[in-house]
Write a structure and sequence with these properties.
Length: about 325
Amino acid sequence: MSFEYTEITDPLYVENKDHTGEDDFIMVRAKQYSNVPIKISHWVPKAHCFTTMFKQHEQELLEAEVYPDDVWVISYPKSGTTWAQEMVWLICNDLNFEAARADSLATRFPFLEVSVIHSVPISSFEKAKNTPRPRFIKSHLPVSMLPKRYWEVKPKTIYIRRNPKSVAVSYFYHSQGIHYRGSIDTFVRSFAREHQFYSPYHAHVIEYHELQDCDNILHLSFEEMKHYLPSVVKKVCEFFGKSYSKSELDLLYQHLSFKSMRDNPTVNYRNPNAPASEEQFIRKGEAEGWKKELTPEQIELLDQWTKENVPNLEQRKLFA
């Protein structure tokens, strides 16, 4: 078996699970990771939070094909992934806005491992395999769980991160829109105890930033995109060897504006049968919206959590 599975016995999780409507989480740790080119001395990957569905697809995940002309966008959930995907897809496809509006982002940019977290009609690994090349692949997998071929091929990849307090708030509203019935306070405490999909959060971010000889990965942040979008777009264009005129780029900035993204049905993953009052996938898009959403106690809890999990001051800059 390539992964180790451990039951969660944390009393807070056990006590709240039925009330919050959370899945039957388990912790999954990769046992084969010698091919990961990481700089951390004596590194052993941490266990990450999934459900028992992971067991059904572990071989599909490990053996998933990776091609040299793939383009991947990877992140911890709710870190600006959708925004980065739309930007990357357009830059790589000659700013073809018409094609972008004609097809959903989920079709243009399949979510590789969604089968390990949700029941879907067709295996997400099969869907990704059958996507015409060049493929655009979305993933939230930590470095220790990427398909074996990823490290052989090293496709061009964007990794995007976001302030943990913003992630906590966005993840709460996202989960509430799917299944979560608990309060934001209960969610924040669960998030800080690493009991949400793909956690632990800090390890996810740090490990991607501690890879060596991985020129195929460009690191971005949600906050950088929010405050310096033209600068980010320039970096991404250079990374993919693309060049556009000022007037073309102005259209891209307009397309990537929060209002445009929020009003764009192809990126919102919205259920057409859902009530109009239901929270949209793209909600507020604020860089520091957590200041209005979290209490001082919750902010202190998350700040202390980061200090405890990231003693290295240089690495802590990733979470500012």
